[in-house]
Protein backbone atom coordinates (compact mmCIF):
# COMPACT_ATOMS: atom_id res chain seq x y z
CA UNK A 1 0.00 0.00 0.00
CA UNK A 2 1.39 3.42 -0.88
CA UNK A 3 1.92 6.05 1.77
CA UNK A 4 2.57 9.77 1.72
CA UNK A 5 3.75 12.47 4.09
CA UNK A 6 0.70 14.27 5.46
CA UNK A 7 2.43 16.84 7.62
CA UNK A 8 4.88 18.57 5.34
CA UNK A 9 7.05 18.73 8.45
CA UNK A 10 10.27 16.81 7.93
CA UNK A 11 10.90 16.57 11.68
CA UNK A 12 7.67 14.71 12.31
CA UNK A 13 6.67 12.62 9.36
CA UNK A 14 3.34 10.87 9.77
CA UNK A 15 2.61 8.35 7.10
CA UNK A 16 -0.95 7.31 6.46
CA UNK A 17 -2.04 4.95 3.71
CA UNK A 18 -3.42 6.94 0.80
CA UNK A 19 -6.42 4.63 0.51
CA UNK A 20 -7.59 5.84 3.92
CA UNK A 21 -7.01 9.55 3.77
CA UNK A 22 -7.27 11.56 0.59
CA UNK A 23 -5.83 14.95 1.53
CA UNK A 24 -3.74 16.83 4.02
CA UNK A 25 -5.74 18.50 6.86
CA UNK A 26 -9.07 17.16 5.65
CA UNK A 27 -11.43 16.88 8.61
CA UNK A 28 -12.67 13.34 9.00
CA UNK A 29 -16.35 12.65 9.68
CA UNK A 30 -16.25 8.84 9.71
CA UNK A 31 -13.32 6.50 10.05
CA UNK A 32 -13.59 2.95 8.75
CA UNK A 33 -10.94 0.44 9.75
CA UNK A 34 -10.34 -3.11 8.51
CA UNK A 35 -13.94 -3.70 7.57
CA UNK A 36 -14.69 -7.28 6.58
CA UNK A 37 -18.15 -8.47 5.58
CA UNK A 38 -19.40 -11.97 4.84
CA UNK A 39 -22.78 -13.03 3.52
CA UNK A 40 -22.85 -16.62 4.74
CA UNK A 41 -19.64 -18.16 3.37
CA UNK A 42 -19.07 -15.42 0.81
CA UNK A 43 -16.74 -12.59 1.75
CA UNK A 44 -17.84 -9.28 0.20
CA UNK A 45 -15.35 -6.86 1.84
CA UNK A 46 -11.73 -7.76 2.63
CA UNK A 47 -10.47 -5.40 5.32
CA UNK A 48 -11.44 -2.01 3.89
CA UNK A 49 -10.21 1.19 5.59
CA UNK A 50 -11.29 4.68 4.68
CA UNK A 51 -11.63 8.16 6.15
CA UNK A 52 -14.76 9.99 5.04
CA UNK A 53 -14.20 13.74 4.70
CA UNK A 54 -16.62 16.04 6.50
CA UNK A 55 -19.02 18.24 4.48
CA UNK A 56 -17.86 16.73 1.24
CA UNK A 57 -19.36 14.36 -1.28
CA UNK A 58 -17.49 11.07 -1.53
CA UNK A 59 -18.35 8.81 -4.46
CA UNK A 60 -17.91 5.03 -4.40
CA UNK A 61 -17.37 3.61 -7.87
CA UNK A 62 -16.41 0.21 -9.26
CA UNK A 63 -17.75 -2.72 -11.26
CA UNK A 64 -20.91 -4.56 -10.32
CA UNK A 65 -20.53 -6.77 -7.24
CA UNK A 66 -17.31 -5.13 -5.98
CA UNK A 67 -18.86 -4.26 -2.61
CA UNK A 68 -19.85 -0.58 -2.91
CA UNK A 69 -23.37 -1.00 -1.54
CA UNK A 70 -22.16 -3.41 1.12
CA UNK A 71 -19.66 -0.80 2.28
CA UNK A 72 -22.26 1.97 2.19
CA UNK A 73 -24.77 -0.08 4.19
CA UNK A 74 -22.14 -0.75 6.85
CA UNK A 75 -21.88 2.99 7.53
CA UNK A 76 -25.28 3.04 9.27
CA UNK A 77 -25.63 -0.65 10.07
CA UNK A 78 -28.22 -1.30 7.38
CA UNK A 79 -26.50 -4.65 6.80
CA UNK A 80 -27.68 -5.72 10.26
CA UNK A 81 -31.05 -6.32 8.63
CA UNK A 82 -29.67 -8.98 6.27
CA UNK A 83 -29.78 -12.56 7.56
CA UNK A 84 -26.45 -14.47 7.74
CA UNK A 85 -24.34 -11.32 7.54
CA UNK A 86 -21.10 -11.16 9.56
CA UNK A 87 -19.17 -7.92 10.03
CA UNK A 88 -15.69 -7.36 11.49
CA UNK A 89 -13.74 -4.15 11.90
CA UNK A 90 -14.63 -0.67 13.11
CA UNK A 91 -16.68 2.24 11.84
CA UNK A 92 -16.08 5.31 13.94
CA UNK A 93 -18.59 8.14 14.06
CA UNK A 94 -18.36 10.91 16.63
CA UNK A 95 -15.56 9.07 18.43
CA UNK A 96 -17.53 5.89 18.86
CA UNK A 97 -17.47 2.57 17.07
CA UNK A 98 -21.00 2.26 15.69
CA UNK A 99 -20.73 -1.53 16.07
CA UNK A 100 -20.24 -1.26 19.84
CA UNK A 101 -22.99 -3.25 21.63
CA UNK A 102 -24.38 -0.23 23.46
CA UNK A 103 -25.13 1.71 20.26
CA UNK A 104 -28.83 2.43 19.67
CA UNK A 105 -29.22 1.63 15.97
CA UNK A 106 -32.44 3.62 15.53
CA UNK A 107 -30.77 6.70 16.95
CA UNK A 108 -27.64 6.04 14.88
CA UNK A 109 -29.73 6.05 11.70
CA UNK A 110 -31.20 9.41 12.66
CA UNK A 111 -27.63 10.77 12.51
CA UNK A 112 -26.64 8.80 9.42
CA UNK A 113 -29.57 8.74 7.00
CA UNK A 114 -29.99 6.80 3.79
CA UNK A 115 -31.54 7.37 0.38
CA UNK A 116 -32.07 4.31 -1.78
CA UNK A 117 -31.78 3.55 -5.47
CA UNK A 118 -35.51 3.37 -6.04
CA UNK A 119 -37.56 6.18 -4.51
CA UNK A 120 -39.50 4.54 -1.67
CA UNK A 121 -41.95 7.02 -0.13
CA UNK A 122 -44.18 5.63 2.59
CA UNK A 123 -47.77 5.00 1.43
CA UNK A 124 -48.74 8.17 3.28
CA UNK A 125 -49.29 11.81 2.44
CA UNK A 126 -46.40 14.05 1.40
CA UNK A 127 -46.70 15.76 4.81
CA UNK A 128 -46.66 12.51 6.77
CA UNK A 129 -43.68 11.18 4.84
CA UNK A 130 -41.66 14.00 6.39
CA UNK A 131 -43.40 14.13 9.78
CA UNK A 132 -43.40 10.41 10.58
CA UNK A 133 -39.82 9.88 11.79
CA UNK A 134 -39.40 13.13 13.78
CA UNK A 135 -42.69 12.26 15.51
CA UNK A 136 -41.72 8.65 16.28
CA UNK A 137 -38.30 9.78 17.53
CA UNK A 138 -39.98 12.37 19.76
CA UNK A 139 -37.97 15.16 18.14
CA UNK A 140 -41.00 17.37 17.45
CA UNK A 141 -44.20 17.50 19.50
CA UNK A 142 -46.05 20.73 18.65
CA UNK A 143 -48.09 20.85 15.45
CA UNK A 144 -46.77 24.25 14.42
CA UNK A 145 -43.17 23.08 14.92
CA UNK A 146 -43.92 20.07 12.75
CA UNK A 147 -45.40 22.28 10.03
CA UNK A 148 -42.25 24.37 10.09
CA UNK A 149 -40.07 21.27 9.90
CA UNK A 150 -42.03 19.85 6.96
CA UNK A 151 -41.73 23.15 5.10
CA UNK A 152 -38.04 23.53 5.90
CA UNK A 153 -37.18 19.95 4.86
CA UNK A 154 -39.10 20.23 1.58
CA UNK A 155 -37.40 23.56 0.87
CA UNK A 156 -33.95 22.04 1.56
CA UNK A 157 -34.80 19.25 -0.88
CA UNK A 158 -35.94 21.75 -3.51
CA UNK A 159 -39.47 20.37 -3.57
CA UNK A 160 -41.53 22.90 -1.59
CA UNK A 161 -42.69 25.04 -4.50
CA UNK A 162 -43.94 21.98 -6.37
CA UNK A 163 -45.92 20.46 -3.50
CA UNK A 164 -46.85 23.22 -1.05
CA UNK A 165 -50.49 23.26 -2.23
CA UNK A 166 -50.97 19.49 -2.03
CA UNK A 167 -49.25 18.33 1.13
CA UNK A 168 -52.08 15.91 1.91
CA UNK A 169 -51.75 14.11 -1.44
CA UNK A 170 -50.06 10.70 -1.35
CA UNK A 171 -46.26 10.81 -1.72
CA UNK A 172 -46.67 8.05 -4.28
CA UNK A 173 -48.66 10.41 -6.55
CA UNK A 174 -45.48 12.40 -7.30
CA UNK A 175 -43.19 11.82 -10.29
CA UNK A 176 -40.09 9.64 -9.83
CA UNK A 177 -37.77 12.63 -9.50
CA UNK A 178 -40.12 14.33 -7.07
CA UNK A 179 -40.44 11.11 -5.05
CA UNK A 180 -36.66 10.89 -4.77
CA UNK A 181 -36.48 14.50 -3.53
CA UNK A 182 -39.28 13.64 -1.08
CA UNK A 183 -37.12 10.76 0.19
CA UNK A 184 -34.19 13.15 0.56
CA UNK A 185 -36.46 15.59 2.45
CA UNK A 186 -37.60 12.71 4.65
CA UNK A 187 -33.99 11.74 5.36
CA UNK A 188 -32.93 15.26 6.30
CA UNK A 189 -36.03 15.93 8.45
CA UNK A 190 -34.45 14.10 11.41
CA UNK A 191 -31.31 16.30 11.16
CA UNK A 192 -28.69 13.73 10.23
CA UNK A 193 -25.15 14.88 9.69
CA UNK A 194 -24.31 12.14 7.18
CA UNK A 195 -26.39 11.13 4.16
CA UNK A 196 -25.74 7.81 2.43
CA UNK A 197 -27.05 7.57 -1.12
CA UNK A 198 -27.16 4.30 -3.02
CA UNK A 199 -27.41 5.15 -6.72
CA UNK A 200 -30.03 7.83 -5.99
CA UNK A 201 -30.45 8.81 -9.64
CA UNK A 202 -30.45 5.45 -11.36
CA UNK A 203 -34.26 5.37 -11.65
CA UNK A 204 -34.51 9.00 -12.78
CA UNK A 205 -34.56 10.69 -16.18
CA UNK A 206 -31.79 13.17 -17.09
CA UNK A 207 -33.78 16.23 -16.01
CA UNK A 208 -34.63 14.77 -12.59
CA UNK A 209 -31.04 13.55 -12.29
CA UNK A 210 -29.72 17.06 -12.87
CA UNK A 211 -32.08 18.41 -10.19
CA UNK A 212 -30.95 15.81 -7.65
CA UNK A 213 -27.28 16.38 -8.50
CA UNK A 214 -27.73 20.11 -7.95
CA UNK A 215 -29.41 19.35 -4.64
CA UNK A 216 -26.49 17.11 -3.59
CA UNK A 217 -24.14 19.96 -4.40
CA UNK A 218 -26.13 22.33 -2.18
CA UNK A 219 -26.54 19.83 0.65
CA UNK A 220 -22.82 19.22 1.05
CA UNK A 221 -22.50 22.56 2.85
CA UNK A 222 -24.32 21.04 5.80
CA UNK A 223 -24.01 17.32 5.32
CA UNK A 224 -21.36 14.72 4.72
CA UNK A 225 -22.53 12.70 1.73
CA UNK A 226 -21.39 9.27 0.57
CA UNK A 227 -22.86 8.21 -2.76
CA UNK A 228 -22.65 4.96 -4.71
CA UNK A 229 -22.84 5.55 -8.43
CA UNK A 230 -22.31 3.60 -11.62
CA UNK A 231 -22.21 6.82 -13.52
CA UNK A 232 -18.60 8.02 -13.70
CA UNK A 233 -19.63 11.42 -15.08
CA UNK A 234 -21.89 11.80 -12.08
CA UNK A 235 -19.02 11.02 -9.69
CA UNK A 236 -16.89 13.56 -11.53
CA UNK A 237 -19.66 16.17 -11.35
CA UNK A 238 -20.76 15.84 -7.72
CA UNK A 239 -17.93 14.34 -5.68
CA UNK A 240 -14.90 15.99 -4.12
CA UNK A 241 -13.45 12.55 -3.36
CA UNK A 242 -13.80 9.23 -5.08
CA UNK A 243 -12.96 5.68 -4.02
CA UNK A 244 -12.56 2.96 -6.61
CA UNK A 245 -13.61 -0.47 -5.34
CA UNK A 246 -12.63 -3.78 -6.90
CA UNK A 247 -13.33 -7.31 -5.61
CA UNK A 248 -14.15 -6.15 -2.10
CA UNK A 249 -11.16 -3.83 -1.69
CA UNK A 250 -10.46 -0.16 -2.25
CA UNK A 251 -7.90 0.05 -5.03
CA UNK A 252 -7.58 3.81 -4.99
CA UNK A 253 -9.06 6.71 -3.02
CA UNK A 254 -8.23 10.31 -3.73
CA UNK A 255 -9.67 13.65 -4.71
CA UNK A 256 -11.93 13.14 -7.70
CA UNK A 257 -9.87 15.22 -10.14
CA UNK A 258 -6.71 13.23 -9.44
CA UNK A 259 -8.48 9.90 -9.63
CA UNK A 260 -9.97 10.68 -13.02
CA UNK A 261 -7.05 12.56 -14.55
CA UNK A 262 -4.00 10.89 -12.95
CA UNK A 263 -5.02 7.52 -11.54
CA UNK A 264 -2.15 5.93 -9.62
CA UNK A 265 -3.25 2.36 -10.24
CA UNK A 266 -3.50 0.57 -13.56
CA UNK A 267 -6.79 -1.06 -12.48
CA UNK A 268 -8.33 2.36 -11.84
CA UNK A 269 -7.18 3.60 -15.21
CA UNK A 270 -8.60 0.54 -16.97
CA UNK A 271 -11.93 1.05 -15.23
CA UNK A 272 -12.34 4.76 -15.85
CA UNK A 273 -11.30 4.41 -19.47
CA UNK A 274 -13.93 1.70 -19.95
CA UNK A 275 -11.53 -1.20 -20.52
CA UNK A 276 -13.59 -3.30 -18.15
CA UNK A 277 -16.55 -3.16 -15.77
N1 LIG B 1 -27.94 -9.73 0.77
C1 LIG B 1 -26.93 -10.40 0.21
N2 LIG B 1 -26.82 -11.73 0.36
C2 LIG B 1 -25.81 -12.42 -0.20
N3 LIG B 1 -24.83 -11.86 -0.95
C3 LIG B 1 -24.89 -10.54 -1.13
C4 LIG B 1 -25.94 -9.73 -0.58
N4 LIG B 1 -25.71 -8.44 -0.95
C5 LIG B 1 -24.60 -8.46 -1.70
N5 LIG B 1 -24.10 -9.70 -1.81
C6 LIG B 1 -22.90 -10.11 -2.54
O1 LIG B 1 -21.81 -9.34 -2.07
C7 LIG B 1 -21.00 -8.88 -3.13
C8 LIG B 1 -20.95 -7.35 -3.14
O2 LIG B 1 -22.26 -6.88 -3.46
P1 LIG B 1 -22.64 -5.34 -3.44
O3 LIG B 1 -24.10 -5.24 -3.70
O4 LIG B 1 -22.10 -4.72 -2.23
O5 LIG B 1 -21.81 -4.83 -4.69
P2 LIG B 1 -21.97 -3.50 -5.54
O6 LIG B 1 -20.59 -3.07 -5.90
O7 LIG B 1 -22.82 -2.51 -4.81
O8 LIG B 1 -22.73 -4.04 -6.81
P3 LIG B 1 -23.74 -3.29 -7.82
O9 LIG B 1 -22.95 -2.18 -8.42
O10 LIG B 1 -24.09 -4.34 -8.82
O11 LIG B 1 -24.92 -2.82 -7.01
C9 LIG B 1 -21.60 -9.47 -4.40
O12 LIG B 1 -20.91 -10.64 -4.72
C10 LIG B 1 -23.02 -9.77 -4.02
O13 LIG B 1 -23.52 -10.87 -4.74
UniProtKB/TrEMBL annotation:
Coarse class of the protein's main subcellular location: membrane
Any one GO BP annotation for this protein: phosphate ion transmembrane transport
Gene3D superfamilies per record: P-loop containing nucleotide triphosphate hydrolases (3.40.50.300)
SMART domains: AAA
Signal peptide range: none
A matching Pfam family: ABC_tran
Domain ABC transporter span(s) in chain numbering: 30-272
Keywords of the record: ATP-binding, Cell membrane, Hydrolase, Membrane, Nucleotide-binding, Phosphate transport, Translocase, Transport
Annotated membrane topology: Peripheral membrane protein
Official protein name in the record: Phosphate import ATP-binding protein PstB
Bilayer-crossing regions: none
Function in brief: Part of the ABC transporter complex PstSACB involved in phosphate import. Responsible for energy coupling to the transport system.
Origin superkingdom: Bacteria
GO molecular-function terms, A-Z: ATP binding; ATP hydrolysis activity; phosphate transmembrane transporter activity
Any one GO cellular component localisation term in the record: plasma membrane
Broadest EC class assigned to this enzyme: hydrolase
PROSITE patterns, per database record: ABC_TRANSPORTER_1, ABC_TRANSPORTER_2
Subcellular locations according to the entry: Cell inner membrane
Keyword rRNA processing: no
InterPro entries linked to this entry: AAA+_ATPase, ABC_transporter-like_ATP-bd, ABC_transporter-like_CS, P-loop_NTPase, PstB-like
NCBIfam families: 3a0107s01c2
EC number: 3.6.3.27
Amino acid sequence: MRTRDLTGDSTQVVRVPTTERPRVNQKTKMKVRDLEVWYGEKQALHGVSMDVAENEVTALIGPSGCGKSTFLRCLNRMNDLIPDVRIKGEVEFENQNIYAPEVDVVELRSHIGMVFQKPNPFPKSIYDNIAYAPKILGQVRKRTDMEDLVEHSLKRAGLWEEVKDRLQMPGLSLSGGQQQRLCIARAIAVSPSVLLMDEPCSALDPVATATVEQLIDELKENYTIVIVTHNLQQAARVAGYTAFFHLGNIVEYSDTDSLFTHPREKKTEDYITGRYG
